Amino acid sequence: MPVIWLWIIGSRPISVWLGLNPATTSRSVEGSPFDAAIFGLLLIAGIIVLLNRRRRVSASLKASWPILLFFAYCLLSVTWSDFPDISLKRWIKAIGDLVMVLVLVTDTDPAAAVGRLISRVGFVLMPASILLIKYFNNLGRAYDPDGDQMNTGVTTNKNMLGVITLVISLGAVWRFVNVLLAKRKPNRTRELLAWGVLLAFCITVLAMADSATSVACFILGTVLLLATFLPFISRRPGRIHVLVVMILFVGGLTMLLGGQSGVVHALGRQTNLTGRTDIWAAVLPVVPNPVVGAGFESFWMGPRLQKVYNNLSGYMHVNEAHNGYIEVYLNLGWVGVGLIAINLISGYRGSVAAFRRYPTFGGLMLAYVAAAAIYSITEAGFRMLDPIWMFLLLAIVGSHSVASGRGGGSGKPLSARARPVTKLSDDYELASAR
After folding, report:
1. Does residue 95 surpass a pLDDT of 90?
2. Do residues 320 and 378 lie in contact, with contact meaning Cβ atoms separated by under 8 Å?
3. Is a pLDDT exceeding 60 seen at residue 264?
4. pLDDT of residue 167 exceeding 80
5. At 129, is the pLDDT very low, low, confident or very high (cuts 50, 70, 90)?
6. CA-CA distance, 152 to 139, in Å (whole number)?
7. Which of 398, 399, 374 is nearest to 166 (CA)?
């Protein structure tokens, strides 16, 4: 079910693939009934699975309570939305992301479940994107609002192609390095070849997508992920804080000294972040309530849109703030931004705690938290049915579940000298223990 879910949110709605999508205006407000039925069936099936795992689900949710607090506040915000019925429908659909994450986390072997998700989604969407871009231009390419051609692959725009490739790429790096370091693993050569091929597909698609944000986040996430494999850090998990602080310090110093222009130009973008700063300036004055926002997923509806378009001199193609933090502010106000900050901190702390118990699994969760936090500076990453949001949920819930020893297959805490083989102990840890 998580594979099917990610296939859909990482590409195009099924109604679009089948040519059944309704008119654009209607779809942007109410959505496709056909797609709603598909999501509804997956949601119900996922809930049935979780009912059979209710003890593990309860333990996982208790360990990651900030997520519950955020979703509860989102539900409460429906009451002050100008479109409460639509807002409630979107909240129910947003629960599907959490349900699919819980299906993964409560598996008897969560690390293996995440690996299967990465491989089964990656080996379908990545080659298909290359095929569509190269040989089916009417499906794999499109034009942006400025009339420039962009590669979309299996998605509807280049940024969406970039973000699904980003989350799959980080998972492919994780599994490739795991298998590479597991010297005694059966079928090691074949697995190395398979994960190497997938990683090559991902890098190719990432280059084709030309999404500067996704490329930057992939580099950042990969550096963090590879660092967790170094004995210098894995033997002293506390040193991961030093690495993170160094990255933040270098980034902050670059911004302070005015070096952001050089970085932006190096990524092939304008200093105004391809018009994003204009969008931010246009939407901020339109928010109806700075404290609580417009209501869950409600800002981009109604007369507010015309005000935004007027502020942008008639630019009629904007439907998001292109900044996850501002997007949350528009819909949920400062309260929502505060809850997102709490969840990011919780995800970071949980990932470090998981890293202490199971270094490679915790390292992947840390990479996803960092990627989501940086990605959302120039893209609306904290939105329902977005791959980066789903993997942020996975990092928060999964890391806390593993770190607390209450998730599926979590086993006993690791000592400083010995690492017992459990279902969460991956190939690299097994080789290290031997």
Report:
1. yes
2. no
3. no
4. yes
5. very high
6. 8
7. 374
Supply the angle between the helices 387-404 and 359-375 in degrees, to the nearest 10. Answer: 150
- DSSP per residue, 276-328: HHHHHHHHGGG-S-TTT-S-TT-TTSTTHHHHHHHHTTT-----S-S-HHHHH
Residue-level length of the chain = 434
Reading the block at residue 397, the tokens are: 């819930």
CA distance linking residue 368 with residue 243, whole number of Å? 16
Cβ–Cβ < 8 Å for 341, 324? no
Q: What is the pLDDT of residues 330-370, one digit of tens each?
A: 999 999 999 999 999 999 999 988 888 888 888 999 999 99
Under a CB-based contact definition with an 8 Å cutoff, are residues 139 and 337 in contact? no
Asked if residue 205 lies in contact with residue 134, where contact means CB atoms within 8 angstroms, the answer is no
Q: Which two tokens stand for residue 390?
A: 């789903």
- Is-contact 146 274, C-beta < 8 A? no
80's tokens:
């002050």
**Distance separating alpha carbons of residues 366 and 364, to the nearest angstrom:** 5
List the chain domain ranges.
2-243+277-433
Helix (H) or strand (E) holding 242: helix 239-256
Residue 371 · residue 166 · CB < 8 Å: yes
Q: What is the DSSP letter of 416?
A: S
Give the count of beta carbons closer than 10 Å to the beta carbon of residue 269. 15
Task: Return the H-helix or E-strand segment holding 36.
Answer: helix 33-51
405 pLDDT more than 70: no
Please, which residues bridge with residue 381 across strands?
A: none
Distance of CA 279 to the CA centre of its chain: 23
